[in-house]
Design brief:
This protein is mostly helical and 78 residues long. 79% of the residues lie in helices and 0% in strands. It starts with a helix and ends with a helix.
């Protein structure tokens, strides 16, 4: 399951957290709250790993990232 989710996360991305939650619930027996918390930690780790890879290559679109971050925070408040 981890290999499949990792491949999906690297190639497509959106929805990975949902797959992680379902996998943690179905295969490892976590309840949904614990699975959701652990999925967020895993997602954060994969994002950090991607940044560590892409920053040295200059492949990060910082302005777009900032715009999306502001929109994400604004949406959470609404």
């Amino acid at each position: 399951a981890g290999l499949g989710i990792g491949f999906y996360d690297g190639m497509i991305g959106p929805g990975t957290g949902t797959f992680l939650v379902f996998t943690l619930v179905a295969l490892l027996g976590y309840d949904f709250l614990q699975a959701s918390a652990k999925a967020k930690i895993v997602n954060l780790a994969t994002y950090a790993g991607a940044l560590l890879l892409f920053i040295p290559h200059g492949s990060v679109l910082w302005l777009l990232g900032r715009i999306l971050a502001v929109a994400n925070v604004g949406g959470s408040y609404l």
